[in-house]
Amino acid sequence: MKYKLGDFVRFVDEKMEGFVTRIIDDQMIGVTGEDDFEIPVLASKVTTVHGYVPAGEQKIDINQEALAFTGGFETKGIYIAVASDPKANSVVHFYLINETSFQLPASLTTKKQALYKGEYVGIADPKSVTKIYSAQLADLQLWPEFVFNTLFYTTHNTEPFPPISVNKIFKAKDFSGSKKPLPLFNPPTIGWLTRLDEPELVIDAQKLKESFFKPAEEKAAVEKPANEIDLHIEKLRDDYQFLTGAEILSVQLAYFHKALDAAIVHQLHEIIFIHGSGTGVLKNEIQKVLSKHQKIQTFMDARKEKFGYGATRVLLK
Fold first, then answer.
1. Over its length of 317 residues, how does the chain's per-residue pLDDT go in tens digits?
2. Which residue in 96, 102, 221, 226 is a FRET match for 158, CA 20 to 30 A apart?
3. How many structural domains are present in the chain?
4. CA contacts within 13 A on the Cβ side of 114
5. Residues 181 and 227 in one domain
6. CB atoms within 10 A of CB 175
7. Cβ density class 230-256: b for 16+ within 10 Å, e for less
8. Does residue 74 sit within a domain?
9. Is the pTM value of this prediction over 0.70?
């Protein structure tokens, strides 16, 4: 199949054009036009229209080596970004974002029903965005498991890091939060981010076990939280006017952790955290914790008619 999701094509026998939004089989594709209707068509009956470049694929004429060392040698910041195609919203593209000063020899392999398929191999330059895969967001439940591998290379006098290998099965909760601006994209683009070089949350199994098998009198000492927890700083501290931004965030997160632990101890089915929309920093920090917590079933935006995008509903196991 020579066509990929997101390709802009024109029908050979008709005055129609659109974007490839589905790969049906080796001979058939689905093309969606301006009316948003997807039309199945033989791949031999369309031709590529050159000139359309999806977001994130623009080539920026810059000195990558010089950029890599601007402001010092950066060693952290490797992400997988998922963003909708600007012209075909049903299609999402996966990008490898490299904010580090390393060159990253990288590969993507998919696994589905014990079958492996190499999808991408190449080198991600420092401070670059590279498209590595495309898929239909509506087919999320059918997506394969993704295996991302990267190495670290530089001519700079810096010890290379150990290789990264991350297996990821995307779920609906990965896309339940609001989109955020994606780094390094030109033009600016919003989407969802998964960090590859972030240390995994280490859970002390013994301490976790002890926390859930405390005597009844110890559990009773933990006050049962309300069903809705307001994390606006003015609700938590009277002296908030004298706190820095970092101190405010620290107070809010401490209160969030305390309320979440209390909800788990009291075996609540769900709890809502009201964090406001604002810059999205608090919401992102909260959802980062929730996405790795073993006692969380799922989370999502709370009722938009009541909270807008300013609250997260958490379902506990």
1. 577 777 888 888 888 888 887 777 778 888 887 766 778 888 888 888 765 554 444 443 334 444 445 557 888 899 999 998 877 777 889 999 999 999 999 999 999 888 999 999 999 999 999 999 988 887 888 899 999 999 999 988 888 889 999 999 988 777 766 778 899 998 888 888 888 987 554 555 665 566 566 565 554 567 888 999 999 988 888 777 777 888 888 889 999 999 999 898 888 999 999 988 878 889 889 988 998 888 898 998 888 777 777 889 999 98
2. 96
3. 3
4. 0
5. no
6. 15
7. bbebeeeeeeeeeeeeeebeebbeebb
8. yes
9. no
Cis upstream peptide for 199 (omega within 30°)? no
Q: Which domain holds residue 91?
A: 64-195
Q: How far apart are CA 62 and CA 219, in angstroms?
A: 59
Let me know if residue 108 belongs to a domain: yes
**Are 93 and 151 contained in the same domain?**
yes
CATH number at residue 166: 2.60.40.1600
